[in-house]
């Protein structure tokens, strides 16, 4: 990897591609050596071998696929027979060059995309983002770790008192140093942004045994087995010898697993002990993740017996109560369903109440100002919703309430908007305005249905293109009633769910 030299003119003329967030995280782990023995994305032979036997093609143990998938049209810009024209520059989310890939192999992944593999070389200065001092590579960390046993912990959630007690007991058991690995490749399993997760872990430093804390671009894929295997591989690359984990059967990399004790809080003296050693009448069990989230949503301070005050304060900053947290409300439905009218009514009520800063992103206005260059193909419609979702998420990131009312006909586009909101640490509510097509056609305020039936326009949702009825809407409105009734229903829902003050009317 390090000996591969490319002329500047080749890099300047090479096509570029920005991988998906999970692939960017994998890219950084490959470049840093955290995925050793891998030095690049899997080849076709390696992928087949891993899938069938849990080993690379040369027999080296490796249990999880690490691949790069690109649009098939991108391969048209490459010539694999010419070393000077088969280089692909991989860029980060800000379009800065991150690595050069000498593409030597491509093969079909799924319709419209291919896997690619080849030799990698880092470009640029390395990892970007917050907490750069914690973003150390495996070799750098191993150089500063003391010799002997190292207890590793993948801190993908904040460290409350039960976790701190488990960690302290495990550290005493193995009599070694502690390495806290904080995943920063995306939101954690409870939706906490990675920077907020790092801050919450740092807030618990004074309650940790002797420990080194590193931020590593590990990401979640939704496949718990794959994630556990890769996480344990990364831990081993960083010098971990013992891993505190409940996933005893799905570790890799030669680690020994230390199982966490089942603990309970003893109200007699305020200590966390083995659950069996605490009498039932003085026992308090650790709060579940759902219970913690519910307390945060209602603005209730996490109890000190369960969470150190410094950690509780940090979590309060990153997950304020719903009435103060950013929110995206996406109204979806056919043209003429009443989305804009209802959203405008909600917006006016919020402005009159004054308890939330609200922004209205009307579908027609967005089309004119933000997406004027887009058509009405499926891809363009999804891109339009992604743009709306991005702007709305940025409004919500800073505590605002964004009301959006595009048609949003496809489940994929709506799902992307929800994802963007959650990644911004905000809430998301999908409101389906379920007005039947015949009612929308009867209204036809803009004359679009008449033009569509006459063949004057194409790609009309409900006439030429499908509308995928939401199955995940938090609220569905039947517009048989008045607009005022629909607006009141939305406001009542937002109040009942804690997004508005109960006094809002």
Automatic annotation (TrEMBL):
<comment type="function">
    <text>Catalyzes the synthesis of activated sulfate.</text>
</comment>
<feature type="domain" description="ATP-sulfurylase PUA-like">
    <location>
        <begin position="18"/>
        <end position="110"/>
    </location>
</feature>
<keyword id="KW-0067">ATP-binding</keyword>
<dbReference type="InterPro" id="IPR002891">
    <property type="entry name" value="APS"/>
</dbReference>
<dbReference type="InterPro" id="IPR014729">
    <property type="entry name" value="Rossmann-like_a/b/a_fold"/>
</dbReference>
<feature type="domain" description="APS kinase">
    <location>
        <begin position="325"/>
        <end position="478"/>
    </location>
</feature>
<dbReference type="Pfam" id="PF01747">
    <property type="entry name" value="ATP-sulfurylase"/>
</dbReference>
<dbReference type="GO" id="GO:0019379">
    <property type="term" value="P:sulfate assimilation, phosphoadenylyl sulfate reduction by phosphoadenylyl-sulfate reductase (thioredoxin)"/>
</dbReference>
<comment type="pathway">
    <text>Sulfur metabolism; hydrogen sulfide biosynthesis; sulfite from sulfate: step 2/3.</text>
</comment>
<keyword id="KW-0547">Nucleotide-binding</keyword>
<dbReference type="GO" id="GO:0004781">
    <property type="term" value="F:sulfate adenylyltransferase (ATP) activity"/>
</dbReference>
<dbReference type="GO" id="GO:0010134">
    <property type="term" value="P:sulfate assimilation via adenylyl sulfate reduction"/>
</dbReference>
<dbReference type="GO" id="GO:0004020">
    <property type="term" value="F:adenylylsulfate kinase activity"/>
</dbReference>
<dbReference type="InterPro" id="IPR015947">
    <property type="entry name" value="PUA-like_sf"/>
</dbReference>
<dbReference type="Pfam" id="PF14306">
    <property type="entry name" value="PUA_2"/>
</dbReference>
<keyword id="KW-0808">Transferase</keyword>
<dbReference type="InterPro" id="IPR050512">
    <property type="entry name" value="Sulf_AdTrans/APS_kinase"/>
</dbReference>
<dbReference type="GO" id="GO:0005524">
    <property type="term" value="F:ATP binding"/>
</dbReference>
<feature type="domain" description="Sulphate adenylyltransferase catalytic">
    <location>
        <begin position="133"/>
        <end position="247"/>
    </location>
</feature>
<keyword id="KW-0548">Nucleotidyltransferase</keyword>
<dbReference type="GO" id="GO:0005737">
    <property type="term" value="C:cytoplasm"/>
</dbReference>
<protein>
    <recommendedName>
        <fullName>adenylyl-sulfate kinase</fullName>
        <ecNumber>2.7.1.25</ecNumber>
    </recommendedName>
</protein>
<dbReference type="InterPro" id="IPR025980">
    <property type="entry name" value="ATP-Sase_PUA-like_dom"/>
</dbReference>
<dbReference type="Pfam" id="PF01583">
    <property type="entry name" value="APS_kinase"/>
</dbReference>
<dbReference type="InterPro" id="IPR024951">
    <property type="entry name" value="Sulfurylase_cat_dom"/>
</dbReference>
<dbReference type="InterPro" id="IPR059117">
    <property type="entry name" value="APS_kinase_dom"/>
</dbReference>
<dbReference type="InterPro" id="IPR027417">
    <property type="entry name" value="P-loop_NTPase"/>
</dbReference>
